[in-house]
Amino acid sequence: MSDMHRLLKTMQQEGSGVLAAVIEVEGSAYRKAGAKMFFAKDGTWSGLISGGCVEEDLSYAAEAVLHSGSPQVVTYDLRSEDDLGWGQGAGCNGSIRVLLEPVHMHPSSIWQRMLTELENNRPVVQLKRTGSGEATVLYTPEGKRIGGNGAITLSEVEREKLVSLQTDKETAAVITEGGSMLIYECIMPKPKLYVFGAGRDAEPVVSQAVRTGWGVTVVDPSPNRLEAGGFTEADERICRHPEGWLQEHSLPEGASVLVMSHRFEQDQRVLQLLAGQNTSYCGVLGPRRRTRRLLGTDTIPGWITSPAGLDIQAEGEEEIAISMMAELIQVRRAVKQVPAVLEVV
């Protein structure tokens, strides 16, 4: 997710700093390869790449990178269970390799181009070579170059290694025979969540979704409700009856939906209009018997989840919101969106 989009917005505000990215994990660790954080010029940072074990030391390394202007790769062994290792008693049973690189967010930079693509809901594939022949190139998922500095030519051995690694990973790195490193990364736009209904129980759902990196749109006919606290965090608030808005708009492919207006006829019409749209998740608030009544059938089709949320015996709006977000994250993580761009680059 979504970490990169949030960090790019921070980078845009700060202008320059250092981006730290986990490029390789051996064993187990707090975050997987692809996790990132950003160090601003004033020493503050955004994001985490561990549970707090390495960030302080990494800030000193980031300061050195900012002054030198040269990328650096550092390794932290978190496997030690005593204070002699970087785990400092954490016992994570893994080690992580972190790439630190200076960032200058000017209009023609690759970082700005990446942000532009993501904000236009387009994935970006980044191919980076560190060490000898250092370069970074951005591609569309189909393999069209859209930005970068320098050029990267892959040998057949390098291509085969990366293709074998990228089949189930969004970030993959290999060390070449010359000692340099090739890093492949697929960076996806913020996942889209559409919430139809702005009741009080939808407020914590929207608030949690925004904090976990979703691009949220709330559709409801009540302007007063849309101005309520939790909804002000949404990317978009649309003051329309959901069924009327859906008659004029199609959802982006793979979007997630929560139907929770508490109005029977409205929810019924919304589900009719959602049928056939290529959503990744469509959750309906309320018991299954209500959903069966909405559909006018005893069988709930597979594209609908009813009731929305994981069964964690949740009570109250905050706990129900947690159960919904847990299920949305579970569904999102289950979908691997890794383009085969290396086959055409």
Automatic annotation (TrEMBL):
Domain XdhC Rossmann spans what residues? 193-328
Top-rank taxon of the source lineage equals: Bacteria
User: What Gene3D superfamilies does the record point to?
Assistant: NAD(P)-binding Rossmann-like Domain
Tell me the ranges covered by the XdhC- CoxI domain, including all copies. 13-77
Which InterPro entries does the record associate with it? MoCofactor_Util/Proc, XdhC_CoxI, XdhC_Rossmann_dom
The name this protein goes by in its record: Xanthine dehydrogenase
Source organism: Alkalicoccus urumqiensis
